[in-house]
Amino acid sequence: MQSWRLDDGRQTLVLAARRERLPEVIYWGAPLPKEEDLEVLAAAHRIDVTGGMLDENPDLSICPEAVRTFPGQPGLIVRGNDGTPLLPKFCYTGEVADDAGLKLSYADEDNGLQYHAQIALDPETHVLTLAAELTSDEPVHLHWLAAPVLPASQNADDILDVSGRWCGEFQINRTPWSAGIRYRENRTGRTGHEHFPGLIVPGMGATNTQGEAWGFHYGWSGGHRMIAEELPDGRRQIQFGHAARMETKPATSFKSAPLYAVYSSDGLNGVAVSFQRHLRDRIVPWVDTTRPRPVHYNCWEAVYFDHKLDVLKDIASRASKLGAERFVLDDGWFGQRDDDTTSLSDWEVDTRKYPEGLHPLIDHVHGLGMTFGIWFEPEMINQDSDVFRAHPDWALGSDDQILGRQQMAIDMGNPEVRDFIYERMAAVLEEYPIDYIKWDHNRVLPMPDAAQTRGSYALIDRLRETFPNVEIESCASGGGRIDFGILARTQRVWLSDSNDALERLKMQHNAALFLPAAITGSHVGPSRSHTSGRTLDIRFRGWVAAQRHMGFEMDPRELNEEEAAVLSEITDWWKHNRDWMMAADILRLDSIDPAILAEQQSSRDGSRFAVFAGKAATSAQIAPRPLRLTRLDPEARYRVTLVNRNSASHLSRGNPALKDGPIEMSGQYLMNHGVVLPWSFPETMWVIEGHKLDV
Ligand code: DGJ
To answer: Domain 587-692 in CATH: superfamily?
Structure first.
């Protein structure tokens, strides 16, 4: 028997292999004692056999092999160059353990295939990174390659995964485990709104703040496949990989994207905090960590395609007065882009709108002390564009394909196309002092193709190399391209095209299971939301944006004096707190009142926190229920202040202590009784600040 174990103080992962076969993960959970005998564990892990079963249970290995009578989905499906299905059966060939983790190698000599699994465990973030690689002596066709397969606990009732839509990203689905497969496959060629590549398996009875949970995320922007399967014998497996058949050409080498996985013994928050930290501290390539996240102003919902220099200057001045520090010029500045039917790929400034180029606008923005960002949609082309007229063959897919937003994708797998787009974008970035790109992707691909995603990555990587100080925001009609693969190359995501604070509150709450505040853009939208028609008060809009990387996206000319004052005040509060908040852990609170969506942002050193308690609906009961906090020091005392107590409505007639000013109490009380908030209207937010007191 062979065995390996990985430990980080929070979890142990044990792999064991019978003879020289591919190993199985025989344990993944709370840390095991050092002296645990892995041979005994491997034997104990074996399950019984009864009537109607094979004489031995096939291995649920890191790449289950169909040829070994595995009764579920195999980890690899591959065909020879002539189309003959190959049925791999791997044997151990070697291993390397170094700083990059553990690499296990296997070969199938009969089929000329080699399989490698890479597994690393980060001792600080507690995130496992797993990737699989297939190489072959002759070119083969790949249908499916799963990242190393992990088991799911049989002590879990449900599967939580994430779906969504335009303006409704990050909706959580809870599906009970049962025999068979929960299978999700995204064949849109981008990460997509529909199937965020994440999964959480909560242990029985787990909540946000307690119980066990196992989290998974597949870091790839081209569309993935997820399989959560319960085998007839009760064992469960989790597979993640690229969407099937995304590799369109025979080749001798294929890789899965990294699968990120984590075990938590303190609820969904343990998973969330690990993913948030891993993304922020390990994956996102920050340009300058000493520079605070700037407050954004984005002009999209103010002017759309109607760019007028004077108006934009006026808007920039007002945005700056409100506290904005970065001005982002959205769609409409290039080609003849007066609406969304034209000009994508003609990345040259529209001299009808900007006769002297962008300099006058940028000079004005800089004069206000703001930096300047600009919108591109590099992977797209309109048929009504100069580039398409010159190179119709550069568009991806057939001539009679269904268009999306009147546009086609451009063939990013073609190096000539990539070079052209690079040159055009580089010319703009060279001519103008631009430190930010909003990088959009507004349609699905005609078919999934891994070469397209690799081409997009290559273009971003090349631009980042030439312009290392330019930050990039990943946007795809809002949250259509959010994953750890794109975030290895970008610094911000546009979570949604919905600036409706109520919708945002919900999305942000769920997205926090995977994303930290520092990378999650959130803007104060117009009073009447352009995407939902809902009218919301400036306080609520302001505080919801202040939960994440804050910005504005309305026409500031619509704000009356009072609204402008409120927004400036909230923005000041955010600026005052951003240094610690942008590095804080977002902890979802277990609110007993389903109308309240609450989170606690806790500083890394535990010295302070902010609680955002958003009221998404009217409550069933008349008086607010106490809201329990989490992860505080039970022995310590905290000073707790209701930051926006002046917002209490006239219908809040009583005197909960927080309404009068700060109160001091123990962590134990705050966690076990909770804070009692004043009565409030729906679509409002209470914000609490907490400070640990010196003893
Ligand atoms: C979709 C984005 O999500 C919006 O924010 C905006 O940039 C438009 N595209 C511009 O066309």
So the answer is: Golgi alpha-mannosidase II (2.60.40.1180)
